[in-house]
Amino acid sequence: MDIIVCVKHVPETAEAELKISANGKTIEKTGLVFNINEWDNYAVEEAVRIKEKFGGTVTVITVGTEDSDYTIRRCLAHGADNAIRLTDPRFEGSDGYAIAKILYSIIRNLHYDLILTGSQAGDDGYSMVGPTIAEMLNIPHVVLVKKIELEAGIARVHRELEGGFEEVVEVKLPALLAVQTGINEPRYVSITSIRRAMQKEIKVMSLADTGLSENEVGEAGSWLKIEKLHAPPVEKQIEFLKGNSEEVAAKIIKILRSRGLI
Amino acid sequence: MTEIFVLAEHRQGQILDITYEVLTKGKEIAEKTNAKLAVLILGKDVKEKAKTLPEYVNRVLVVEDFKLENFNSDAWIKILSNIIMEQMPLLTMMGHTSYGMECAPRLAASLGIPIATDCIDLDFEDENLVVMRQMYGGKVNVRAILKKAKSYMVTVRPGVFIARKPKIPFNGEVIEKQSLLTEEVTTKRFVEYVFPPPGEVDITVAEKLVGIGRGIKDQANMPMMEEFAKAIGAVLASTRPVIDKGWLPSDRQVGSSGKTVKPKLYFAVGISGAFQHILGMKNSDLIITINKDPKAPIFNFSDYGIVEDLFKIVPELTKRINELKG
Ligand SMILES: Cc1cc2nc3c(=O)[nH]c(=O)nc-3n(C[C@H](O)[C@H](O)[C@H](O)COP(=O)(O)OP(=O)(O)OC[C@H]3O[C@@H](n4cnc5c(N)ncnc54)[C@H](O)[C@@H]3O)c2cc1C
């Protein structure tokens, strides 16, 4: 089983304060901690488990600047064998469609039985890169995958639907599966093992290696152009309860009591 | 004739709510662009269901084929691309759901038409399609513009547009279209549905819920949250990461891929407020949120907010309530 996993280096923003940059089109990246996209982490774990069971190789591939090497090293420490990073200043401003084109242009020349991606990226949330690559490669795909069982020439997968239930789908290999969180329990990847993975080679490729023209990537090759970022509007008039822990606790109790909730 | 297409989503004989949500937005866009509104429904035995749709649209396009008994994106994409190529609608809309996420990006790529996924709003401005999306788990809204084209595609976030029946029913024409699926699609095959085993507690009927998120950090902190829930007489529910880690059984998950709840009290602790979670709890009567990040999107949906470390507030609150109860 030769498996390709598409991964992305993204900022952790759940607990961070985000500042919109002066041009209004991006966020300030300084001060943010970057790591592997949550969904991709599950995809890498799944690929490594399949390799451990059936043999073969795991190749991780990303589009990103040199900073992404942190995430790639993490994948190599996690058990991936090969790594490719696609880097070019002209990739800047690419939307999900352009990113898919860049990844496809390299993947089409590799051998694979299975391609795994995350269901979405935590930063831009497109959830379109996987299915778009599958279309370009002309292989079947399944998204929101929560379980993978491999048999001769097919993958039997569980796909998540709304409301807590799933459907079982059989798909012919080679196929692309976009992985949903909770498919497995990713193993712990220590900093020391990431350091050890420093010796492994990361193949760096640029626009010239993709065979794409300048107009097919970046903003020119994208369908979507970001115009402006702003803070989301408030849906409900919220009241913030202020004070020290005791004061706040007293206020909450008062609210709960007044509504007969305690 | 310019036309707006909406793909009807149905499962196990039911047209899903998202269809009517997208139709509501579709109607607005159609009025603004002077376009006709059409709904597409594909499947086996869908003719009966199609009869419920004319009041929403100018045209109901029905594709009836026994080969479409179960959802198979490869089959759906084949049929939809035929229809879109033939009719060239200005815009094709579907939900950003397990259905839309599987079909739309691939369909757009195969037809070469621009797509924007997970839109929370959209509009035509001077013949340009402008969309609103979110990034970074709902912390930032983005206005984006699509590359100029004859036809566009969008997926629309569930729960954003309120489904409304048109005040004046459309009385649309029902048109049967050939599926043009010459043979069974063999790349992919539906096998069966899997339902989760019923749990001990039903969070959809509990009056009070304490929703816990990744902010509780460690399984070792679960007893602290259980004690708190017990003190206020609530049941523990949670976001997805807590379920993924196995700290609570899967039927306690609130959100799009979990349960929809509407308790008298939803106490959100250490939850950021990703839309998939908000979708499941935003209609709770009273929402009180504890989060140390003042910019957490969940505050935008809450009645009361406490910007503080949950590990300070929760034990204090538990202690005081237990004292009150004596
Ligand atoms: C198709 C799909 C379906 C999904 N379905 C669901 C679903 O049904 N339900 C669901 O919940 N999610 C669902 N998700 C996942 C969702 O996108 C989010 O990843 C998830 O809701 C985040 O959970 P969280 O808020 O617990 O974690 P995070 O986003 O990591 O947020 C943790 C929060 O805790 C706060 N915090 C941390 N420490 C403390 C402290 N000491 N004191 C106070 N606050 C603290 C942080 O500031 C942060 O806001 C789905 C995703 C996809 C792609």
Describe the protein.
The complex is a heterodimer of chains A (262) and B (326). Chain A is an alpha/beta fold and 262 residues long. Helix content of chain A is 27%, strand content 27%. A 9-stranded mixed β-sheet of chain A has the order 9-8-7-10-6-1-4-5-11, sandwiched between helices. The longest helix of chain A is centred in the first third of the chain and has 17 residues, at 38-54. The mean pLDDT of chain A is 97. Chain B is an alpha/beta fold and 326 residues long. Chain B is built from 8 helices and 18 strands. In chain B, the strands form 4 sheets. In chain B, strands 7-11-6-1-4-5-12 form a 7-stranded parallel β-sheet, with helices on both faces. The interface between A and B is large, with 81 and 97 residues. The structure holds flavin-adenine dinucleotide. Flavin-adenine dinucleotide sits between chains B (137, 213-215, 239-241, 253-258, 270-272, 274, 276-277, 280, 290-293, 296, 309-311) and A (14-15, 119-120, 144).
Question: What tags apply to this protein structure?
Answer:
heterodimer, A: 262 residues, alpha/beta, nine-stranded mixed sheet, 7 helices, 13 strands, globular, B: 326 residues, seven-stranded parallel sheet, five-stranded parallel sheet, elongated, binds flavin-adenine dinucleotide
Question: How many individual helices of chain A?
Answer: 7
Overall mean confidence score, pLDDT of chain B: 96
The shape of chain B, in one word, is: elongated
Strands side by side in the biggest sheet of chain B: 7-11-6-1-4-5-12
Q: What fraction strand of chain A? A: 25-35%
- Estimate percent helicity of chain B: 25-40%
The percentage helix of chain A is 25-40%
Anisotropy-based shape of chain A = globular
Bound molecules: flavin-adenine dinucleotide
Q: Order of helices and strands of chain B, N to C?
A: EEEHEHEHEHEEEEEEEEHEHEHEEH
Q: What distance separates the N and C termini of chain A? A: 58 Å
Low-pLDDT segments of chain B: none
